[in-house]
From TrEMBL:
Domain Rieske: from-to ranges: 74-161
Species whose genome carries this gene: Roseisolibacter agri
Keyword Membrane listed: no
Protein name (Swiss-Prot/TrEMBL): Rieske domain-containing protein
Protein keywords: 2Fe-2S, Iron, Iron-sulfur, Metal-binding
Pfam families: Rieske
Superkingdom, natural source: Bacteria
Cross-referenced InterPro entries: Rieske_2Fe-2S (IPR017941), Rieske_2Fe-2S_sf (IPR036922), TAT_signal (IPR006311), TAT_signal_bac_arc (IPR019546)
GO molecular function: 2 iron, 2 sulfur cluster binding; metal ion binding
Length: 183
């Protein structure tokens, strides 16, 4: 004869040992459990070849246009936040926080090719170390403006980038601010 769930639980040895523990002891046990869980998760990521820091990084990938028409290039909308570089056209496509941007690969200070630091989730110039957020906003360094943004608009194939129209934040702040495709 089977027993009811409530009777079975009541008869189970140590079914509610934690109920008898002092509140401080419960809190200590819980904190210890969370520490162990966090350590186990970190160990699992390392085992997969991914450091805990990298797990929160914004990835870098290479891309190429799916369509060319004169001075325009159309890129697929990136599937997730991160940076994609089209080296042939010297364009960086970034998806970040619900928007897509297209940047000139060259640093606005002295035209050095910018680098994406995935772990730091930002751009940095290798020459004079100017730093920029993923949306091109200037953080610090010798540059005097944000990363130069190409004009962009939504296109059936993804995001259309107009290579003939480059918005520089200091000379054209409104155009620069508008140069984004909101998703
Ligand atoms: S060339 Fe990039 S900061 Fe000088």
């Amino acid at each position: 004869m089977s027993s009811s769930p409530s009777k079975s639980a009541a008869n189970a040895p140590d079914a509610c040992t934690a109920c008898d523990a002092a509140p401080d002891a419960i809190g200590a046990d819980r904190r210890a459990f969370l520490r162990h869980a966090a350590a186990a998760a970190g160990a699992a990521l390392v085992a997969l070849g991914t450091s805990p820091l990298e797990a929160f990084a914004l990835p870098l990938a290479f891309t190429s246009p799916v369509r060319r028409d004169g001075e325009t290039r159309t890129y697929p909308v990136p599937a997730a936040d991160g940076a994609e570089i089209d080296r042939d056209n010297e364009v960086i496509v970034v998806r970040w926080q619900g928007a897509v941007y297209a940047f000139n690969l060259a640093c606005p200070h002295q035209n050095t090719a910018l680098r994406w630091l995935a772990a730091d989730r930002r751009f940095q110039c290798p020459k004079h170390k100017s730093k920029y957020q993923p949306d091109g906003t200037f953080i610090e360094g010798r540059a005097t403006r944000g990363m130069d943004r190409f004009a962009v608009r939504r296109d059936p194939g993804g995001v259309l980038v107009d290579l003939s129209t480059l918005h520089k934040q200091d000379a054209d702040p409104q155009g620069w601010a508008a140069a984004a495709v909101r998703l």
